[in-house]
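Moderator note: this is an archived Q&A kept for reference. The question asked for a predicted structure of one protein chain; the sequence and the answer are reproduced below.
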Amino acid sequence: MSCLECPCACSRLAVLPCPRMYAWMYVSVTRMPSTNPSMVSFESGSESYDVWSPLGSVCGGRGTVWLARHKPSHAQVALKIYELDKCEDEFELIQHEIRTARQLRHRNVLHYLASFPVSQQLWVVMPLLGYTSASRLVATHFTDGLPEPALALVVKEVLQGLAYLHSKRIIHRAVRGSHILIDNSGRVVLSGLRHSTSINDVTHWKKTVHCYPMQARYNLNWASPELLAQDLQGYSENSDVYSVGITVCELGNGEVPYRDIPSTLMLLDKLEDRVPFLFDASTCASTSDNGQGWTSQSSCRTPAPRTLSSLFSQDLSDGLKLARQTTDSGVGGSVGGNLTALAITQRLFTPSAHDFVSRALSRYPDERPPAGELLAHPFVRQCRKFGSTLPHVVVKMTIYTVVTIM
């Protein structure tokens, strides 16, 4: 009896060289435990899957994510299909992503059930994550940003996944809202492993790396200053912690940080420690010199002491006029693009949430707590009080919405 026929409870992976023209691709079969003691084998062949409907695009339109059904087990899966003739500049990244995913096994890190070539396509079978990505949820259902309980639940599981990756000496390098996926039970998983790198060298143990990520232009807004600086000091796992801080602002404010700011100005802001923050009545203040009644966050400076609520001491018409005004949020676009002035004055993040962002976005990596240490931060520990899972906290979520994954 071969290892693939063994009924033990261990997940096993068989890797065979692919005889087709793309020699770097591998035919892989993953055996995953199901709800019953028997094992489910996800075959490496297109005839074993019914492809139903598209869920979104992948790699900038070079592939498509489909809702599919595994015929032998009747399990619903997500099927990522790459068009290889369009992925000439993505071959190495796709290969790296599949190889890395095969080596990892954690509930908060995305794994692949199988991958195999079909004609001029590459099919990758993944678990179905019905609530799509965190960024898509914000864009479609929570344009003012996620409520703090949901934000804390998401961040907690992201940190758990990062702590696992860092224990394996892997830097993710692309933590962002679109790479945070949520399944039907509320479990959060990290994707985007194509951008990851290992600190381990084939000859010695390294503390930092200096290589610049391929296709880094997609993730510049979330990158740490030391990664962007490309100096002799290099960067380490703590660069992911910086990305978590940016992602908290992205999901909490409903805006991607530095979205409409030129890359050079964004780099200057990060190097000079001018970073985003969570928008609420305590942080967004008025100014008298910007001509719009709001503190410009294009440079992400510390807010003025006077709170935004003082702006609404005017009569109702003036207040509504101010609420409709927009300004460069520095997180890209404008505050009025997603988050209105009125919404800001009606919410207040806890001090622990602001402290979490401040610690994660420290300018120097040795001042940032590791991912495992941040799990003990009060902002994350408050999840114990909720007594519910993410779908119960965020009741407006709907499943199977179209999602675009970069």
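Archived answer notes: The radius of gyration is 22 Å.
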